[in-house]
Write a structure and sequence with these properties.
Elements: H1 6-12, H2 17-45, H3 47-67, H4 71-100, H5 105-134, H6 138-149, H7 174-177, H8 180-210, H9 216-243, H10 246-266, H11 270-295, H12 304-332, H13 340-357
Helix pairs in contact: 1-2, 2-3, 2-4, 2-12, 3-4, 3-6, 4-5, 4-12, 5-9, 5-11, 8-11, 8-12, 8-13, 9-11, 10-11, 10-13, 12-13
């Protein structure tokens, strides 16, 4: 909801378009930096308590943003919102995988991603209407209300840390958490986010306007088709990860993703822009929950939050780096915009190779009260 408001908020306070980007950057960076810490909170205090803290903090800082009348205050509001969002979403994802157990983990992650895609699709539309009718600060206030309403979801979460009813679990060191599964799963998530946002936020928009001379509305439809494709496959995606396996699902999605990337690079035509972009959006949407299921393999319940937080930190860094690194590589080499697709394909190939070498271990069944 906030995205349509950023340019107007920056302009109201005498700032530039760069400042509008800084507002979004403050949110994203703070969210990324807090993911690992959010996992620690979820494990130590329980997912329900962590979720409440995140949502109440999000509501409070949203009201602060609504009342803010200078750029520094807005920047602080967005940074704290990023941290609050990280605390809540990490707790929510951890609660889902704990409830689902090892056999339902793929479905839990797939449906969580579907909810995110849907919200990312409708949020800007609602935000645009609010800004046009009631002013650029209004989305902050609506966001506060939404955060408080989301407290109802906390009732479905476990009320205590998974191991709290037993003897205190042994201390957990970082070296004990980071194993081959987490590294490969994190790399897989990184590759998926790197390609998805490198293509959707940089390569395709620039090439569509500069090389293929498409309109901005056509560009919006091209990206939208891929998002719709993700939503369509959501009912079967989780069952695919859980039934067929996270590793084969991830490897297949990587191969299809590389095919789509190289097809557009080799056949730079308007029809191929539609086909390849939809393919990349669809396959990266499959890669993310499959990578998450890989990363959480054999994670014990009492460290599930920390494992989830580390996976999100590694994976979501691709979202930040993709739109920056892809154009930087092409500019440094004096290459065409579409050459960025090769960079994305190379990153995917590295993740594919790592997943291929991962030896799966059978997970023990864990009974949760």
């Amino acid at each position: 909801m906030m995205v349509p408001a950023f340019p107007l908020l920056a302009a109201e306070m005498g700032s530039t378009g760069v400042a509008a980007g800084a507002l979004m950057g403050a949110y994203g960076l703070s969210r990324l930096l807090f993911n690992a810490f959010s996992g620690v909170l979820a494990d130590r205090f329980g997912v329900a308590k962590s979720a409440v803290v995140g949502l109440v903090l999000l509501a409070a800082v949203s009201v602060f943003g609504f009342l803010a009348r200078n750029f520094v205050s807005l920047l602080v509001a967005m940074a704290v919102q990023g941290a609050a969002s990280s605390v809540f979403s990490t707790a929510a994802m951890t609660a889902l995988v704990l409830k689902a157990g090892p056999k339902g983990r793929g479905r839990a992650l797939a449906w969580f991603q579907t909810a995110l895609l849907l919200s990312m699709a409708i949020g800007p539309m609602i935000g645009g209407q609010l800004v046009d009718r009631f002013g650029a600060h209004t989305p902050f206030l609506v966001q506060a209300v939404v955060a408080l309403l989301a407290l109802a979801a906390v009732r479905a979460m476990p009320k205590a840390p998974p191991a709290s009813h037993n003897a205190a679990p042994p201390p957990v060191r970082l070296s004990g958490l980071i194993g081959p599964a987490l590294i490969v799963g994190g790399l897989g998530g990184f590759a998926a986010f790197f390609c998805r946002f490198g293509v959707a936020w940089n390569v395709v928009p620039v090439a569509a306007i500069q090389q293929f001379h498409l309109s901005t509305s056509e560009l919006g439809w091209i990206i939208g088709v891929g998002t719709v494709a993700n939503l369509v496959v959501a009912p079967v995606l989780g069952r695919l990860v859980d039934g067929w396996g996270a590793k084969p699902t991830f490897i297949t999605a990587c191969l299809l993703n590389i095919t789509g990337l190289l097809a557009l690079f080799a056949v730079p035509t308007v029809p191929m822009v539609w086909i390849a972009t939809a393919t990349v959006m669809l396959t990266t949407g499959i890669m993310i929950p499959a990578a998450g299921a890989l990363a959480l393999t054999n994670a014990k319940p009492h460290v599930m939050g920390r494992t989830m937080g580390l996976f999100r930190t590694i994976g979501e860094s691709g979202m930040a780096l993709g739109p920056v690194v892809v154009p930087a590589v092409t500019a440094a080499g004096g290459l065409s915009v579409l050459s960025g697709l090769v960079t994305c394909a190379a990153v995917t190939a590295i993740a594919l190779a790592a997943a291929s070498m991962l030896t799966a271990r059978r997970e023990p069944r864990v009974a949760l009260s």
